[in-house]
Amino acid sequence: MSLNSLIPVNDIDITAPLTHPENEFYAEEKATQLQVSPVIYIQPVNSPFLSPLEYSLNSSIKRVIDIAGSLLFILTILSWLTPLLAIIIKLNSKGQVFFFQQRHKKDGQTFTCIKFRSMYQNAGHNTEHYDHLITPVGKIIRKYHIDELPQLINVLLGDMSLVGPRPYMISENENFEKLLKNYRFRHLVKPGITGLAQSKGFFGTTSNIEKMEDRLEYDLQYIQKWSFFLDIKIMMNTFLITTGLRKKYIPLETEV
């Protein structure tokens, strides 16, 4: 299989299901050594990884969209939603309104990611197997991803973008960089509030290496094939998924 068959040359169809590459793209020997499932190789290690966002004009266009979009949402939604949610969150459980955590941004640097607090105070960070630590209000705002809206401030500050690979926990990044080839290339661009993987229904954290492989493939496709219209498609599809107007989970051909 060639690289072009893995990273499509044509525009990406964000409604089409993802298919895994053939067996030749799996490193069986390395997977055995690490005692994990096969590591997916998105592209040859020595190949240059180029993105349209490396051109100053494209990156400037995306930045203008980020500033305009984040300001619009902050003024029209976050301005009245924040004080309302602040009251609800404080009444529901003790603790601060916002949750702050260090995440990786472009070029592997760190920034302070802002979210509405959805867990009990000092409950921890990873909720994949600890749903009982999420507050009743937190379950609602997580379901509709309202807890992510304060990241519009991160976008306005320039640490994030409206669209891009999601910023995972630093510990998760360090772990997956050891297990997944080319995982570090996710940090060639700014992280986003939503991304191509999320527009396909991949939300939240995961310790499943196979599911992370799927997300990584989508992230790298986005980086290589970025366009203004692709960003618009991703944002529209994410909206349809979060509002329930489109099926959230799209099964993969390799799943049972």
Description:
The structure is a single chain. With 256 residues, this protein is mainly alpha-helical. It has one domain (54-242). The chain contains 9 helices and 6 strands. It has helices at 3-6, 28-34, 56-92, 136-143, 151-157, 170-179, 196-199, 209-224, 228-242, and strands spanning 26-27, 39-40, 98-104, 110-116, 161-163, 192-194. The strands form 3 sheets. Strands 1-2 form a two-stranded antiparallel sheet. Strand 5 (161-163), helix 6 (170-179) and strand 6 (192-194) form a beta-alpha-beta unit. It is globular and about 50 Å long. Mean pLDDT is 79; it is low at 1-11, 14-47 and 250-256.
Whole-number average pLDDT? 79
Oligomeric state, counting identical vs distinct chains? single chain
Q: Strand order, biggest sheet?
A: 1-2
What is Rg?
A: 18 Å
Biggest sheet architecture: 2 strands, antiparallel
**Number of structurally distinct domains:** 1
Shape descriptor reads: globular
Total of DSSP H or I helical runs spanning 4+ residues:
9
Weakly predicted, low-confidence segments: 1-11, 14-47, 250-256
Strand fraction equals 5-15%
Briefly summarize what is shown.
The chain is mainly alpha-helical and 256 residues long. Helix content is 42%, strand content 9%.
Write the layout of secondary structure elements.
Blueprint (H helix, E strand, L loop, with lengths): L2 H4 L19 E2 H7 L4 E2 L15 H37 L5 E7 L5 E7 L19 H8 L7 H7 L3 E3 L6 H10 L12 E3 L1 H4 L9 H16 L3 H15 L14
Parallel strand pairs: 5-6
Antiparallel strand pairs: 1-2, 3-4
